[in-house]
Amino acid sequence: MKLAIISDIHEDYIYLEQTLKKIENIGCNEIACLGDIVGYSVPHYFHIDTRNANKCIELISSNCKYVVAGNHDHFALRKLPENCSEYNLPDNWYELSFDKRKELSKGKVWLYEDTELSALLNDKSKEWLSNLPEFVIIDFSDYKIFLSHFICPDITGFTTAYLEHISNFSLHLKFLKKFNTNLCFFGHIHTSELLELRNNNHKFSKNVIINTEIIGIGIPAIVRNKYFSGFAVFDTSKNCVELYSV
Questions:
Q1: CA distance linking residue 27 with residue 11, whole number of Å
Q2: Are 76 and 194 in contact (CB under 8 A)?
Q3: Domain containing residue 104
Q4: 161 SS3 class
Q5: DSSP letter string, 29-71
Q6: Which of 13, 29, 79, 115 is deepest in the core (most CB within 10 A)?
Q7: How many domains would you assign to the chain?
Q8: What is the spatial distance between Cα 1 and Cα 86, in angstroms, rounded to a whole number?
């Protein structure tokens, strides 16, 4: 069986359509989306004239069996994460001024408004987005798989601490063991290759062999950006996760 994993679309419905066609040609059984469906950051992306958050949500909701929320999805709704043990932010966080939140966050929490355009969501899209979980656990072939936008202690990618969390995968390992999962996928990092995490070791590669060890795999972004646009396919017949470009 083949599971396609996509992430970080950021309103790029053209690259999303191309990705879904490629996944169909590969012959994947199911598709999982790891969040950041919406959210357009002006300095980083190149599709300002064709961005369409509502169309991306329509494509994801009709093609993906499993979907989780990312940090930009939450921001579009002004929603705080449920799973972020590092910060106890006030419930009225998004009612505070930008300057006040900047002062309180001390550069450790994404603030968005200085670079982000509104996702221009319609009511149907807002309702669908608001019902997304922050993580899901799925049974796929003989594997129990944990899907989230990022890893513990920040599974929605709410904070700016990319490298600190990647270098301490043991925190996420403890979380995975609670659910008896032996494999996890996450996005958020916009990597140019697959990021393979085992214990506190990490490396980048174009394919990852799955064994009995608990493994975390970070995947690239779909969105057009200055690095790489791609997705991953987990083929259980080969026990292998492979990287594909859009």
A1: 25
A2: no
A3: 2-245
A4: coil
A5: SEEEE-S--S-EETTT-S-TTT--HHHHHHHHHHH-SEE---H
A6: 13
A7: 1
A8: 37
Among 9-18, 82-91, 95-104, 164-173, which stretch is predicted with the lowest mean pLDDT? Answer: 82-91
Q: How confident is the model at residue 85 (pLDDT cuts 50, 70, 90)?
A: low
H helices present in the chain, as ranges: 13-26, 53-63, 71-77, 98-105, 123-130, 162-166, 170-178
Distance from C-alpha of 158 to C-alpha of 153, rounded to nearest angstrom: 10
What single-letter amino acid sits at 169? Answer: F
Q: Specify the pLDDT at position 213.
A: 84
Number of Cβ atoms within 10 Å of the Cβ of 212: 6
Cα(204)–Cα(197) distance, rounded to whole angstroms? 9
CA separation (Å) from 149 to 6, 102, 226? 10, 23, 21
Dmax (CA) for the chain in angstroms is 52
The CATH number of the domain holding residue 184 is 3.60.21.10
- Contact (Cβ atoms closer than 8 angstroms) between residue 224 and residue 15: yes
Report pLDDT digits (tens) over 16-73: 999 999 999 999 999 999 999 999 999 999 999 999 999 999 999 999 999 999 999 9
Amino acid letter at 71? N
Q: Is residue 112 within 8 Å of residue 43, measured between CB atoms? A: no
As a dihedral over the C-alpha atoms of residue 185, residue 186, residue 191, residue 197, rounded to 10 degrees, the angle is -60
Best-predicted range by mean pLDDT (64-68, 80-84, 141-145, 195-199) = 64-68
